[in-house]
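@channel anyone free to eyeball this complex?
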Amino acid sequence: MCEWISVALPKGRLGEKAAGLLETIGYGCGALAKGSRALIFENPKNRVRCFWAKPSDVAIYVERGAADVGIVGKDILLEEQPDVYELCDLKMGVCRMMVAGKKGADLNPDRPLRVATKFPRIAAEYFASRSREIDVIKLNGSIEIAPLLGLSDVIVDIVETGTTLKENDLVVLEEILPISTRLVANKVSYKFKNDRVLELLSRVRAALEEQA
Amino acid sequence: MKETNVLRRAEQVSLTLRGIYEQFGYRRFRVSKFEEYDFYATYRSFLQTESILTFHDLNGKLMALKPDVTLSIIKNAPQAPKRPERVYYSEAVYRAAKGARTFAEMQQLGLEFVGEVDRYALVEVLLLADKSMAAMGGPYTLDLSHVGLLECLLGEAGLSGRAREGCYEAVFSKNLQRLEELLASSPAAVRQALLALVSAYGPANEVLKSLQGLCFAGAAQAEFEALCGLCAALGAAGVGLHLDFTLRYDPSYYSGVIFQGYLPRVQGCVLSGGQYDGLLQRFGKSGGAVGFAVYLGLLEEQYAEERPYDVDTLLLYSESTGMAELLSAVRVLTAEGKSVCVQKTDDGTVRCRQVATISEGRLTSVVRVD
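replying in thread with the prediction:
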């Protein structure tokens, strides 16, 4: 009998899409989609175990081996830099990492730029590549409010449709990079459960090709 | 009298490995606990750690607690060795683990072969790495990569500095889609070869067979043939390797093979090594070097579930138990090779195989069922 494979899924809209993908490839854990309050779900037939995690924690669960594979945004991978294999771009949750600010904001290069963000590493690396000195202000949510209240000059955040920016009279100033969701694997699981990880990967790739 | 083995599994492994290394002519190398900070600052990228634990000595000189032993061995190696130096060490090193906010003392055991690194030297060191993994007990995998082959191909890909940096990250994270994007303008044969290497994983003979059809040019072909020859020699020596070309390395130090050993219950490699001729060159020394380190501290994770009991017997006594009876009972149990913990009451905090009492001068025991 084959070994169990555990999958960490991000809570929220993206996780629901990911659970749908697992369902498509025969790795679904029924109760996942039924709003159950259980924390861990199993599919004994295909020996798959799934659990929800905070999106920013999925990579840690995978890196530390609590999950063999996980579904996580590229933004989290770039920010946390976990030591995992990035096996496939799932082309879900497509958005862009942007620099945004108030219309006509004074971005005087004569002083350090105050940057509010949930992604201090990405922001620091981006502005370092442009030789711009910055003052990073780490926030955990409602980033858009920072320039409105004068806390920062700009924000670095992910933008999907741009509606929130527009509603708050903010504009995109620069695009840093495109973001999408990735299938990642624990490096030790890849070695010791190689067949299981490759089987899952091949089913995911086949499903994505079919969708395309 | 039977003796209780009080050594923890990691300590037992350490003793076994030292015996194996000495059997192959490696002599122990002892180092001091600290060295001048400047020494480590110069070779910081070799250390794979950002943090070094420093302090001022009595002369005001900035010193560092050793984050690594290999550097000290190479510093002390002869300028141009006439014969190979074979040394092993068992030392504590001090460094901060990735993501940690504090330093930790880590027990490390390793060996270094310094001198002309020919095929025999590589086979010997890899054989010892394999024996080291086997000594840890249970299933393991020893994975091998070849820096020479990867560097040749990355050179032929004709990438600029930034794109090449991106390639390393894509290789180390097995990110084939990103690698393909970065190699879009590289020669098709090089792109195909790199993608094949990065996606490959498995027993050496199977992986090499799957790579046979690739077109390696010039230097890359020579490196590939060297890898095939080495794997054949290792196969003949009974070393069952896996090939994994995504093992992380620093190209400024490592030149030939690199390898890592993994256990299923331990996150991260428990053994890591490779051929690091580049480090000798940085020291202005001739010849080559190959070696590996075993991270003994990580073995605790592997053996964590192997000690379900703190003690074999919990021996209970009361005010009325005579001292002679009690000591006699302890003597009987320890003579049987059992570990004993003597207490007045059993509050359930001591995990034991059996609980024993003394009744009318006789030892009676009850097997605990949890």
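from a first look: Chain A has two domains: 5-93+180-211, 95-179.
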